[in-house]
Amino acid sequence: MDQQSKVAVVGAGIMGEALIAALISSGVNPELITISEKRADRSAELIAKYSIKQAPLATNVAAADALLLVVKPQDMAGVLEEIKGSINPAAVVITFAAGKTISFISNGLGTGNPVIRVMPNTPTMVGAGMAAASMGAGVTAAHKQFVLGFLAATGKVIEVAEQLQDAVTATSGSGPAYFFAFVEAMVAGAKELGLSEQDATTLTVQTIVGAAKLLDESGKSATTLRENVTSPNGTTAAALASFASSDLNSMVAKAMKAASDRSQELA
């Protein structure tokens, strides 16, 4: 595969659009990207924005060298049933549906196409995503290079064994929501201390954004940075002691296990 490969994108929601932008950023000619999307207004929007093409599902998958399945997990079985009679037998299939295994995709198609399973996350939409990819049987070095290449344009990407995808889902896939929930809690706490909602939100969001940037760019671990800001018997120490008394580590681990267990149930 190369930048002249034809790419079919099935499902043009928010994540589908982010992946289209990544494909183009990685060097794929927009004229080689074709979407299949039930909502005509959404298709028209993306065609106008990215200069890509549109085609009926069967026509699209028949011509594609790479097929991106960006549909909801509960819709995947129906999509596979619909495309298995038309798919290009040489195409690599890349699935982005949470919980759906490589074997689920392969069995649903019954065509022998190589399958790559990817777990992205929502910061992909702003070029700061975290994706993990697992390679199925028959995936070539060229397939792998193509997929890892365009995913790198969405942020960062790693390759993992498929049995670790549930752990990935619980860490980076669902992880942005943990962050958003923590921000909500901090804003609520600041308001209880007397700050206005606007000031509480500004203080919290910029603090979190700045801390994340410091963690990403300083080269220091979260542990080191936490220790650096924690003076003995100071204000930060008091807050962290409260976290510890509520067993924050156990709470987070329990929440992540719940996400991982649910990922397995979706398979």
Give the SSE map.
Blueprint: E1 7-10, H1 14-25, E2 33-36, H2 40-50, E3 53-54, H3 57-63, E4 66-69, H4 73-83, E5 92-95, H5 102-109, E6 115-119, E7 129-135, H6 141-152, E8 155-159, H7 165-173, H8 175-192, H9 197-218, H10 222-229, H11 235-245, H12 248-266
Parallel strand pairs: 1-2, 1-4, 2-3, 4-5, 5-6, 7-8
Antiparallel strand pairs: 6-7
Helix pairs in contact: 7-12, 8-9
Structure description:
With 267 residues, the protein is an alpha/beta fold. The chain has two domains: 159 residues, Rossmann fold, CATH 3.40.50.720; 92 residues, Orthogonal Bundle (ProC C-terminal domain-like fold), CATH 1.10.3730. Helices cover 55% and strands 13% of the residues. It is built from twelve helices and eight strands. It has an eight-stranded mixed β-sheet with strand order 3-2-1-4-5-6-7-8, with helices on both faces. β1, α1 and β2 form a beta-alpha-beta unit. The radius of gyration is 21 Å and the shape is elongated.
